[in-house]
Amino acid sequence: MIDWLYSLPDWLLLMACAAFMAGVITVLPRLTHRIPWLSPSAENTDFVLRLQTTLFTATSFVIAFTLVEAEANFRKVDTLVSTEASNINRLDRLLVRYGHETADQVRPPLIAYAQSIVGDEWPLLAGGDGSDKTQEAFSRVSRGILALEPSQGRQVTIYAEILRSFDMVAETRDSRLNAVGVSLSAIFWEVIGFAFLILLFVSSNIERTRFRSIILGCQMAVLGTFIGFVFVMDQPFKGRSAVDPGAIVQTIAIMENRKGG
Pfam families of this UniProt entry (predicted)? Predict the structure, then answer.
């Protein structure tokens, strides 16, 4: 429902989160101060300030931990794409070493498959889907490899490596498709939301001066920026900073320049 936010530039999303949090802490006290038993005074402001500092620190730790988790998920997916590109490149290299025209005939479908990943499938990953065109390209590669008939000696050994490499390509493809749903658990966002609500409530009960309002606004803007950063990193295949197919694009260039034998 909020996926449209990923269409925004990252800097705009971060600024929006910061402005929202700063705006909330500016407006909220005008509401809470109307409640008699929540009206701040000089004698309870000191206590609230000490409590607010503790809550701010705890909330910052929660956000930091969540950011580490989101960053780890992002790096895992990025590494997975690099591994897939490496496996495709290795398979193409083995087909060249096989040294027969039947293996050379498998190489164009393999290149077409890699190109289909970038052109057809990658735009669909943000929506959690794969591409039927890419699956069909993969099937053509599979049929070509299974049609190879190695002779005794060197080709038998290389063919065994080709089959092993093809299995690795298939596994990394499945892993990439399964990774489209990688994101932080809902409990992370629930904990962050609860911590923010309590922090905002406590902060709104500090006796206000213009100076305190500015400082609290800056404080919440910083937390809002970090929350926005977590949101940006949470979905590896979405947004302007999403994992890109650069490694596969480089592999395609290498394969196209590789001379068959």
Answer: Bestrophin-like
Contact 258, 50 (CB under 8 A): no
Report how far residue 159's alpha carbon sits from residue 98's, in angstroms, rounded to the nearest whole number. Answer: 7
User: What is the enclosing helix (H) or strand (E) of 241?
Assistant: none
Residue 83: pLDDT band by 50, 70, 90 thresholds? Answer: very high
List the structure tokens of 184: 């932080």
- Burial of residue 96 (number of CB atoms within 10 Å: 0-12, 13-18, 19+): middle
- For the four alpha carbons of 112, 117, 118 and 124, in that order, the dihedral sign comes to positive
Say which DSSP state 258 is in: S
Distance of alpha carbon 151 from alpha carbon 167, whole angstroms: 21
pLDDT above 80 for 43: no
When the pLDDT of each residue in the chain is averaged and rounded to a whole number, the result is: 87
Q: What angle do CA 221, 227, 229 make, to 5 degrees?
A: 105
How far is C-alpha 125 from the geometric centre of its chain's CA atoms?
Answer: 11
Any residues with CB less than 8 A from the CB of 90 and at least 6 apart, and which? 165, 168
CB 154 within 8 Å of CB 161:
no
Q: Say how far apart CA 196 and CA 220 lie, in whole Å.
A: 9
- Neighbouring CB atoms inside 10 A of 48's CB total 17
Specify the amino acid at residue 232.
Answer: V
